[in-house]
Design brief:
Distance between the termini: 111 Å
Strand content: under 5%
Largest sheet: none
Helix content: over 70%
Mean pLDDT: 86
Shape: rod-shaped
Number of strands: 0
Structural class: mainly alpha
C-alpha cells in the first residue's frame, strides 16, 4: 500500500503543479530575460565589433591612398626618366 499511496501523492502533486502552470507568465519572463541578455551582453559585443570594423575600413582607406600615391610617384619617376 505504501507504493500506491506514494504514486497517488505524486499524481496529486503533478496536478497541483499543472494547475499553477501559466504559459503567459512563462512567456513574459522569457521575453524579459532575453531582453536583458541582449541589452547587457550582446549590444556591447556588437558595439565593439562595429568599432573594429570602422577601424579596419579606415586602415583600408589609408592603405589604398598610400598605394595610389606610390603608384603616382613611380609613374612620375618613369615619365621623368623617359
Amino acid at each position: 500500500m505504501g507504493a500506491s499511496e506514494a504514486l497517488l501523492s505524486m499524481g496529486a502533486s503533478l496536478e497541483r503543479a499543472a494547475s499553477n502552470f501559466d504559459a503567459d507568465k512563462i512567456g513574459q519572463h522569457l521575453s524579459s530575460s532575453l531582453d536583458k541578455i541582449f541589452t547587457n551582453e550582446m549590444v556591447p559585443v556588437f558595439s565593439e565589433i562595429s568599432a573594429e570594423l570602422k577601424s579596419l575600413r579606415e586602415i583600408k582607406q589609408d592603405n589604398g591612398e598610400k598605394v595610389i600615391q606610390a603608384i603616382m610617384t613611380q609613374l612620375r619617376t618613369q615619365v621623368i626618366v623617359i
